[in-house]
Amino acid sequence: MPGDPLGYRAKFGVVTPSVNTVVQPEYDAMRPYGVTNHVARIHIPEKPIDGDSGFQELVRAIDGALDDAVERVLSCAPDYVLMGVSIEAVYQGGVSAARAIEKRLAEKFGPLTLIHAADALPAALAALGVDGGEVSLVTPYMPDADGHLRGFVEELGYDYRRAIHLRAPTPLQISHIPEADVRTALTDLARDRPRAIIQFGANLSMARLADEAERWLGLPVIAVNTATYWHALRRAGLPDRREGFGSLLLHH
């Protein structure tokens, strides 16, 4: 039987929160010919994030609706399932939490290859030659997230220099953070000369800005959506390079 006429190289299923307006267009912009992206929405409420308890509530809402979204996207028989959300595994315990999510989904739906930030970010750092030392973060979160992010970075074997949190008051408003604010944060973080800067928050548009920032800051800047999509392409055995999304997709 003939294969998919558009996704003849790979079909990527993508699950991302219902409020996220950035993952789908950024993934589509990075998509090479012969690869297709198919999005299912993780339904979450649009409500204020009130401190650490509010963030924990948001993470629980994402986790509670994740399985239904995965079930929907699996109906198109994707080769890989991409998690277009960067905070769930990190906020619940890092790499071990990501493995628990993989195990839960596999037990429920059968074997599947899940691509997520907890694997993509360390793979991206290694590809860029960042084999240790200090990394800094820019995020759209409230400062309450800092301890969770520090734990994730240190679990990967890196030193946590510092983070700038851009304090989006709701999940939807992450996408409304002005680019000028992100540029200012990146410039500030670069003054410490960390080995790399990582951006968290899949609803914060930074795929193209990271490309520019690497040139004017002179150090690796890893956008989480770029790292996740790059990792999916390489796991699929696809060597395609894409200009405009930083050195990760251009050289690795």
Structure description:
With 252 residues, this protein is an alpha/beta fold. Helices cover 45% and strands 17% of the residues. The protein has helices at residues 23-30, 51-74, 88-92, 95-109, 117-127, 146-155, 179-190, 207-217, 224-235, 247-251; strands at residues 10-17, 35-42, 80-83, 114-115, 134-139, 159-165, 196-199, 221-223. The strands form two sheets. Strands 2-1-3-4 form a four-stranded parallel sheet, with helices on both faces. The longest helix has 24 residues, at 51-74. InterPro entries: Iso_Racemase_Enz_sf, MaiA/AMDase. This is IgiC. Pfam families: Amdase.
Unreliable sequence segments: none
Order of helices and strands: EHEHEHHEHEHEHEHEHH
Provide the number of structural domains. 2
Strand % is 15-25%
Total number of helices: 10
- What structural class is derived from the secondary structure elements? alpha/beta
Protein name: IgiC
InterPro entries: Iso_Racemase_Enz_sf, MaiA/AMDase
Tell me the layout of helices and strands:
Elements (H helix, E strand, L loop, with lengths): L9 E8 L5 H8 L4 E8 L8 H24 L5 E4 L4 H5 L2 H15 L4 E2 L1 H11 L6 E6 L6 H10 L3 E7 L13 H12 L5 E4 L7 H11 L3 E3 H12 L11 H5 L1
Parallel strand pairs: 1-2, 1-3, 3-4, 5-6, 5-7, 7-8
Annotation keywords:
Rossmann fold, 8 strands, four-stranded parallel beta sheet, 10 helices, IgiC, MaiA/AMDase, alpha/beta, 252 residues, 2 domains, Iso_Racemase_Enz_sf
